[in-house]
Amino acid sequence: MTQTLSPNHELAAQLRDSRLKAGLKHWIGGQWVDAQSGQTFEAHSPVDNSLLTTVASGDAADIDRAARAAHDAFQTWKAVSGAERRKILHRIADLIEKRAQEIAVLESVDTGQAIRFMKSAATRGAENFRFYADRAPGAQDGQSLPAPGFINYTLRQPIGPVGVITPWNTPFMLSTWKIAPALAAGCTVVHKPAEWSPVTATLLAEIMDEAGLPKGVHNLVHGFGESAGKALTEHPLIHAIAFVGETTTGSHIMRQGAETLKRVHFELGGKNPVVVFDDADLDKALDAVVFMIYSLNGERCTSSSRVLVQEGIYDEFTARIAERARNIRVGDPLDPETEVGPLVHPRHFDKVMGYFGKAREEGATIAAGGQRVGDSGNYVSPTLFTGARNDMAIAQEEIFGPVLTAIPFTDEAEALALANGVRYGLAGYLWTNDLTRAHRFAQGLEAGMIWVNSENVRHLPTPFGGVKSSGIGRDGGDYSFEFYMETKNIAVSLGTHKTARLGVGQAAPIAKETAEG
Ligand code: NAD
């Protein structure tokens, strides 16, 4: 394990003292407040599982207060011009960039993610705000749909206060991905971050306030999913829930939101295949496969956690992955050299470790890793399972750690059947130099996002989301506005159509257009 000290450690120590010692509060209606119950919970750092801070533990009473604040602020915020919203969102982006190092260090300390990735994650958060800042002035734009005797036009209006519920894997970046389009659309927000990673949500609230976002437009309630999260999904003043997390939690949220008919957008789990044909550029494919499973500790929804390799190149290709996996630097996430940090929480560490035993029981081979690193902490070695079958738990279940399952295939038809033979369908990666096969295969792959001859490279206007058990709906570009806004149609008569006359003593024909709805 690498243990080099860096200036990041000094900054982390200083921030722990100045920012975290006093504990984290909710941010409701423009005020930092304790939980109404006075309850708190502890957040620990996965670096050494030491106490990081105490956090206000929200419940239905805090959510109610935040939902009311968001409801009150909605009347003001929806009336603010797109141009003004654009300015405020750009100011938020400026402040994120200014404080990117602080955000990155706190994110590493809170989640165990390596600092080398967290700096760019913070910067991506700023890009998300800039992207939607520039779209705010056009968010309401609609269509003109002329008909005989009528002008029809559509416009979009913000849906109202929305709930944003985020997970712990890259919490800062993910929350900006939801909150920025919601604010650009004119919605107000109640954010419930994951209980295992509460720190940077607090920073984001602070930044938005400093940027001049009106009080109550963004509210933050910390707490557990079963209490604060559940209350948010059930609150009648909250019109929609944008949720990122596990598939089973998505099912809970759908049930909880049924009574109040919540609109939901779900970004859920994945077991994403990367399919490597023998005609591919294997050096590039190797880099991409290794990056997409071992970066971000493998705690990444779009990680390529199943590698399907054509049989003629299977042994050599998997041997090369194993060699890379053994060379990956596991260690202190604040060390700039570290590639894989500790897993977020001892419970998650136990879950990932459990799959090493399962792989052995199922008869797979552990070609690399498969053990803890060091005597304490949540560190696991980057792992490769070979000799796996698609029906094994290690091929079907989302492990959400630096753990890759390799399966051989003979031809395109088998590759497609294996790739699609899971309940998930978030992302798929395909490596081949056969252009026709690439298109054919991509069309057959059951996934919301497919990259051909590439790792995950996001372009912000493109749709992001999954099929099957990986999600409902799409984010990104204009797709986010479809979720955060209602489309309204306005039909204006040009005065030339005839209205059917009732009560005039004779049967008149009713035009079919007026008989609908
Ligand atoms: P999780 O579902 O356990 O928790 C996510 C959030 O939901 C947390 O804030 C939690 O407090 C809250 N929550 C839990 N129960 C709730 C309930 N009953 N009602 C309301 N809220 C509730 O997920 P996690 O373990 O934090 O995150 C890991 C999961 O997130 C993985 O499955 C991963 O694939 C997924 N993820 C998906 C994407 C994507 O874009 N598809 C991105 C990142 C992570």
TrEMBL record:
- The residues responsible for catalysis, as annotated, are E267
**An example of a Gene Ontology BP annotation on this entry?**
4-hydroxyphenylacetate catabolic process
Q: Native species of this protein?
A: Deinococcus arcticus
Entry keyword Oxidoreductase: yes
Q: Where is the Aldehyde dehydrogenase domain?
A: 32-490
Coiled-coil spans in chain: none
| This protein's UniProt keywords | NAD, Oxidoreductase
Q: Which domain of life is it from?
A: Bacteria
Give the UniProt family note. Belongs to the aldehyde dehydrogenase family.
User: What is the residue range of the signal peptide feature?
Assistant: none
Q: Name one GO molecular function term.
A: 5-carboxymethyl-2-hydroxymuconic-semialdehyde dehydrogenase activity
Q: Which NCBIfam families match?
A: HpaE
Its name, as the record gives it, is 5-carboxymethyl-2-hydroxymuconate semialdehyde dehydrogenase
